[in-house]
Specification:
Layout: H1 2-24, E1 35-39, E2 44-48, E3 58-62, H2 65-77, E4 82-86, H3 92-101, E5 105-109, H4 123-135, H5 147-179, H6 194-204, H7 210-214, H8 225-231, H9 238-270, H10 278-281, H11 302-310, H12 322-332, H13 342-348, E6 356-358, E7 361-364, H14 373-383, H15 391-403, H16 405-426, H17 435-456, E8 459-467, E9 474-476, E10 490-498, E11 507-509, H18 510-515, E12 519-521
Parallel strand pairs: 1-4, 4-5
Antiparallel strand pairs: 1-2, 2-3, 6-7, 8-10, 9-12, 10-11
Helix pairs in contact: 2-3, 5-9, 5-12, 12-14, 13-16, 14-16, 15-16, 15-17
């Protein structure tokens, strides 16, 4: 009996000793000695500090504003300088603002990066676990822009929601008209345009004559009055007309709300200080590109305001317009020093390969799955380069033909992200070199590659220019077997003669050599 009691005491003493050793010497370097951990919740917040700072190191605080201020005062009395908290829903925002206002360095961490060890989980243990990880510098701080940028982001996101609501109203109106067999959407491109809105309002005012409704056609509409009148013959059902009326009223309400958002945006942008380089650029402002005018664009010179506060004109980048530039600035801000390099910036956007390696094998190379509005805006901007006659447009078309559309869009979005980073951080201007420059540069790289490959095979390569005879024809072998090339009066060739053989045998048209290295000539020799 005495042996069992002594064994239990021994086990308890060992556990207590192990606990003290872990708390006093955890075996890791202390990076943040004045740290605290907060488990954020809906009804309450649990805050943990080091045991040597307060007799009650873990406390519970309610969610009221007075309790949040009391939480901040308690942290200050404990000598805390930095706080780690999870980004749980939107419950962290009021607490984050109060702590930031009081001068604390707040680490907003991803909940996926703070998973505790398996076992029982409680709010107290979660706050203590955050404290331990943050003390030893094992948590990465999530990006949060400055307070003025966060205000701008709030206005811009709300405006985007209103624009989405307007598009939904148009779709519902079009659906109701189609159910009445009013095929107006098949003869005009957009129901929200001048002609579409005029006809819809006349229908709701009681007009049913197709010919009179067709008279409201705008002169820019390609469809004739007869086609529009024919599309307006249907069955006028009162319940569907009621839907159209309500959706039109909601559409107008969204328009008014967007106008109010534009007013707030303009006032808030005016409060930003002008960038130092703006005064120089006003003397010789860059020529703006011809871009498509969006129906939901702000009713004030947005590009000028963005150029004033940033010092650069992001819309000079091909594919990036004023709306995209506004989205980028409202999401990432103007201070690019938050990222060490442009590679870190592209990685934060989720536009870099996420190589997963296990057992010395690469399991996947895809990009990380992130929800980032700035990355989405860059992808949309990259997809518009398909018809651009610029350097970036030529690069995108080449990547699209080689990799496919999804990978090419990601690659070009990565390219655009680097350009945006350089312009905002260093104040550099974007200069387009043109599609011809890129095509010549790409062609030169391919020729150099073919020459290098020929040298590896022991062949001597020369770039020649020959005048072709009409009777000469070239035949491809391998992938191009049986396909004759088109005749030309003058062309360039690469001489792939062996080093020890006669010069003049084995000329390959350069266009065929770039497509398929296994190309032979029907004629044995050409006159030099």
């Amino acid at each position: 009996m005495r042996t069992e009691i002594s064994a239990q005491v021994s086990r308890r003493a060992k556990k207590e000793l192990a606990r003290r050793l872990r708390s006093s010497d955890p075996g890791l370097e202390v990076v943040h000695p004045d740290a605290a951990g907060i488990d954020v919740g809906n009804a309450s917040h649990y805050v943990a500090v080091r045991p040597d700072r307060d007799p009650e190191p873990v406390r519970r605080f309610a969610w009221f504003t007075a309790d949040l201020y009391r939480l901040a005062e308690w942290l200050r009395s404990c000598g805390v300088k930095t706080v780690a908290m999870q980004s749980t829903g939107v419950y962290w925002i009021p607490l984050y603002d109060i702590l930031e206002e009081r001068g604390f360095e707040v680490f907003l961490v991803n909940a996926r990066h703070t998973k505790n060890l398996p076992g029982r989980k409680s709010d107290v243990q979660e706050s203590q676990w955050l404290l331990k990880l943050h003390t030893h510098g094992l948590l990465n701080n999530s990006f949060q822009p400055a307070s003025d940028i966060r205000v701008l982001r709030t206005y811009w996101r709300l405006r985007a929601e209103h624009a989405t609501g307007m598009a939904t109203c148009i779709q519902r109106m079009q659906k109701a008209l189609t159910q009445m067999n009013i095929q107006l959407a098949n003869v005009i491109s957009d129901l929200s345009g001048t002609t579409g809105q005029a006809i819809v309002r006349a229908i709701l005012n009681g007009e049913r004559d197709p010919q009179k409704l067709a008279e409201l056609r705008d002169r820019r509409i390609h469809a004739t009055k007869e086609e529009i009148a024919k599309s307006l013959q249907g069955n006028w059902r009162p319940e569907l007309l009621f839907i159209v009326r309500q959706q039109l009223e909601m559409y107008e309400a969204y328009q008014r709300q967007i106008a109010e958002c534009d007013l707030q945006l303009r006032e808030h942008l005016a409060s930003f200080a002008s960038a130092p380089s703006t005064s120089v650029d006003r003397c010789n402002p860059p020529q703006s590109k011809k871009s498509k005018r969006y129906r939901y664009m702000p009713q004030f010179p947005l590009s000028n305001e963005l150029m004033r506060i940033s010092g650069v004109d992001l819309s000079q980048i091909d594919g990036v317009d004023a709306m995209t530039a506004q989205t980028l600035i409202s999401e990432v801000g103007l201070d690019m020093n938050r990222w060490k390099t442009e590679s870190h910036f592209a990685s934060w956007l989720g536009l870099c390969p996420d190589n997963r390696i296990s057992g010395d094998k690469v399991l996947s190379r895809g990009t990380r799955r992130v929800i980032n509005r700035a990355a989405t805006a860059l992808r949309i901007a990259a997809s518009t380069l398909i018809r651009s006659k610029t350097y970036l447009g030529a690069q995108y078309r080449r990547l699209r033909a080689k990799l496919g559309a999804p990978k090419a869009i990601t690659a070009m979005a990565h390219r655009l992200a680097r350009l945006v980073y350089r312009m905002l951080k260093y104040g550099q201007k974007y200069v387009d070199k043109g599609a011809d420059y890129y095509e010549q540069r790409s062609r030169k790289q391919q020729i150099d590659f073919v020459k290098k490959k020929a040298a590896q095979l022991g062949l001597r390569s020369r770039l020649l220019s020959l005048d072709l005879h009409p009777e000469w024809s070239f035949w491809g072998v391998g992938a191009m077997k049986g396909c004759a090339t088109s005749h030309a009066a003058h062309a360039e060739y690469i001489d792939f003669s062996p080093f020890s053989g006669d010069i003049g045998k084995g000329f390959i048209p350069i266009d065929l050599a770039l497509d398929s290295p296994t190309v032979a000539l029907r004629n044995e020799r050409f006159p030099m």
